[in-house]
User: What shape does this take?
Amino acid sequence: MTDNNKSKFSIDQWQKSFEKETKIDSVDNFINSSDEGIDIKPIYTEQDLHNLEFIEKDSLPGQWPFTRGPKASMYTNRPWTIRQYAGFSTAEESNEFYRKNLESGQKGLSVAFDLPTHRGYDSDDELVMGDVGKAGVAIDTVEDMKILFNNIPLNEMSVSMTMNGAVLPILSSFIVSGEEQNVGKDQLSGTIQNDILKEFMVRNTYIYPPDPSMKIVADIIEYTSKEMPKFNSISISGYHMQEAGADNVLELAYTLADGIEYVRAAKSKGLDVDEFAPRLSFFFAIGTDFFMEIAKLRAARTLWAKIMRDFGAKKEKSLMLRTHCQTSGVSLTEKDPYNNIIRTSYEALSAVLGGTQSLHTNSFDEAIALPTDESARIARNTQLILQNETGVTKTVDPLAGSYFIESLTDQLSKKAWDIIQEVEELGGMTKAVKAGVPKLKIEESATKKQAKVDSGSRVVVGVNKFKNPNEPKVDVRVIDNEKVRDDQIKKLDQIKKSRNQKDVDHSLSELVTAAKEDKNLLEYSIDAIRNRATVGEVSKALESVFGRHFAKSLSVSGVYGKHFEGDQDFMNVSNKIDIFEKDFGRRPRVLVVKMGQDGHDRGAKIVATSFADLGFDVDMGPLFQSPKDVVKDAIENDVHAIGVSTLAAGHKTLVPELMKCLKESDPDNKIIIFVGGIIPEQDYQFLYDQNVSAIFGPGSNIIECAEQVIDLISKNSNKK
Amino acid sequence: MSLADRIYNGERAAIAKAITLVESKNQSDKLEGKKLISELMVKPGHSIRLGFSGPPGVGKSTFIESFGKYLVSKGLKLGVLAIDPSSQITGGSILGDKTRMIEISKSENTFIRSTPSKGSLGGVSSGTREAAIILDAAGYDYVFIETVGVGQSEILASNLVDIFTLIVGPGSGDELQGIKKGITEYADIFIVNKNDGDLKIEASKTQSDYKSAVSYYRNDDINSPLKDVLLVSSLEQTGMDEVIQAVEKIIAYNKEKNEFDKRRFNQLSFWLEEQVKALMQESLEKKLKEEIAVSDLTSQVVEGKIHMYEAIDQIMTKVEKKI
Ligand code: B12
Ligand SMILES: Nc1nc2c(ncn2[C@@H]2O[C@H](COP(=O)(O)OP(=O)(O)OP(=O)(O)O)[C@@H](O)[C@H]2O)c(=O)[nH]1
Ligand SMILES: [Mg+2]
Assistant: This one.
């Protein structure tokens, strides 16, 4: 009997068989290091459960430390909320879109605002000409907000709003819209993102400097904890970090460290932890690393429970981490886009096995434009099928007890905990963010990922392997930005005519005084909004006290190049650059720019650092430049080329404007223009007609881009 | 119109092209650059040149943004030459200084040029002096030169400007004793930056450390405005008035004492010497490589056929003959 058992369960025997099957002499050769630096072994056994530091093996759902889920019943009682993030054009159009979705089975709303709104500019501001209504819905006044929720009862519908920079006027507009629907603020349910720290790190829709921004966050937590019991005062977000390139440990650690900082900010207002902690919510991204993502959600709950206990929280609800998740947009490709439906399905499953409370699934046209009605329907159905056909809702936390999952959860927890301690030593996240450390770490991680894909060591189906020779044509949502802008300006003019200007001026000056006197700003901003002050006016009033923040960005270097030591293609481009330098007495010089309110800087930063590694001299422009600023930079530094990185659909306004300014400033210039980012195929000809020399879409191999750029510059310089 | 005339006209593109010429390693560019500089030096402008040096990350660019804003708001024209130290193994570089000079770079009254320093001591790069001449001719009231301070390069940097400023951070007073001795000698003004938030106490302490360290160099004239140690926060834009006053005082003082022109004269001599040295070095290297069989002689030394000093003597004889 014992003998029998022994042979049946011998790990040595397994190892021998493994080595025989694989014809490789050591199992160790099958250990893969994950992006997080965790060794992924070919087998996990009971042994791996022995020295767990953070995970308690026999824990149960709905109980300390909540590894297995915040609720005892989880999806068996009520499945996760299908909550699709959407918004575009005018409030009228977005409202219609929302209502259709709700009729088709979506359960909660999640509003995407356009970039001018995010950054506190009205639609008539000259600075935002190319951005109105393009990447979200334009909201200028409470009247727009009311239209947005027309025929959507705010006492029944839970509404999530991704708003951080202009959080005061937007939350105020939401509250006043409720009032005017006869719904008291105590009845409003939903979430405001209100997570400013990650804006400075990765999302880039900040307005004010870090310190006053943190004060605003705390004001909102204070106000909502007293007046809006059903409303989540903040959604502490790691999602954007992963989308910007963070691996799962960085995402987990920085998100929880942000959480710690917000708890401190709220406590500094004199609030008791248990007064506000139950209303803190979280938001994570779910990428393609299937098991890692599941482990991340379990680790997040475990660590947060510990953190909150250390803060002295007593209520169970204060200890449990509740989260929304979104599948990864950056894992989706422009090439062979129907593959994205499959990717999103796996990611959704991962989120659900990890125990998310609500979920957004991306549309397959993610890397092309905002979703169409059709692609949005498929995205939503991905979740409906998961909920209704697969049986995943019938058992709580089905993966608990898996040697692999439990071990992974513990290792992730450990690694994240170490980083959280490092941040604490720096004096907390606000300080770390000001010093720029987290941003730089995330950019480093993003650059590594790019190098892995470009070198082919990471496979992306349809991009660097298994390419589709017959790329399908897909429909694209097109937004007529000029029309949206005109409509918004008309509405603005009308409101400015009909409102009582005296009341507006008065409430704005009260707001300014309150900002100087450190009072809770939400109350004052509600008054101003109720009087029909615009989002831009409220933001500017606060700007007059706090100033506007300009990020001082740092860059990584050498990370990309290191992956390509001895690589033939890499050397080939480097050599071409050396030859250019010999011929022309200096290196090819490229200015990489972001124009308008588009804050997607991942691509631009990666391209800049990689180009520098290849041997270019790269001028990196700051965010939010106008075409005129860009031209001045380009001319003064006598660059050979300008590379425009554009992802938020401003290209058809901003590129022609750039060309015009360039011509005006230096009619004889020989500067080459190329464009990278999200450009739908139907816009290519438009850009070529503007004299754009090359276009590089999502998934471009940077070494190939660089080769094309150096060839173009050389050809142009040889023309003389 | 000739390039020089276009520069006198203040044409942005012409100024930029001219700077490219004087920075270029291409022979015909160099020649053209020399001709241009000779032309421009005949009719100089009136600019005051200020140098800002200091360790990486102390906030030089941020200071220039903050201080520059003040000058620009008074309607003055400001040229900035930022020597960016971020050069790499592959030779390329990321020039990110402008992301720290966002506001002044928007102004019509500024011209901001970054130059990769390509490892030349991390400090001045060849062409900086000529670039300053170009901006001077183009009518800029002030020309700022930002360099990273690492040891030797200060001497070069201080020889480019009318007033040389060392920017340091809070807490850098401790290093003073050893390495920074040389710098204290060359700098006219010391600025302790980042005097804000938690760093304030440390900043004042650094200020007093520097004050006592430079007392040794203060000249006997008790009214001398030189070698003042100032506290600023570039982030919060405090202390800028004191900086402008210090600058104005030093200029007035130096002009009164004839120091101003004397300095420029000495700098010109220094520059001439440097140029000659550079040319000699270049031709020497070329000869050693192309005409003198150094490796043959080395082999002979290794094989024990001749002594090392004999080899050196032989090389020297050949070099001298050829020169
Ligand atoms: C990552 C991401 C984010 C991150 C950005 C993080 C950051 N700091 O960059 C986060 C989560 C913060 C984010 C937020 C938003 N996003 Co987003 N985001 C994306 C996503 C998923 C990937 C972009 C990316 O970084 N890819 C990886 C990099 C390396 O690729 P890349 O930039 O394309 O660059 C490559 C090429 O294009 C090319 N290239 C690019 N630039 C240049 C320049 C040169 C010189 C050269 C040679 C080459 C080159 O080479 C690069 C290497 O291959 C895209 C969808 C997608 N899959 O592309 C949506 C997307 C761009 N986002 C979108 C939107 C709407 C937003 C929001 C405005 C939503 C909202 N309303 O709040 C916000 C606001 C952000 C802001 N401040 O502007 C939309 C834009 C819609 C449109 N164009 O019509 C997209 C297309 C998604 C969608 N379909 O809805 N986003
Ligand atoms: N607290 C504080 N930080 C500052 C101040 N000035 C600059 N910084 C910060 O210091 C960092 C470096 O600033 P830079 O202006 O780039 O410094 P630099 O000396 O030009 O750096 P290099 O050109 O890279 O050598 C940035 O993160 C700035 O925000 C200041 O007065 N106070
Ligand atoms: Mg600098």
Observations:
- Chain A touches chain B at residues 550-555, 557-558, 561, 574, 577-578, 581, 583-587, 608-609, 611-622, 629, 632-633, 635-638, 665-666, 668-669 (CB under 8 Å).
- The first strand of chain A starts at residue 32 and ends at 33.
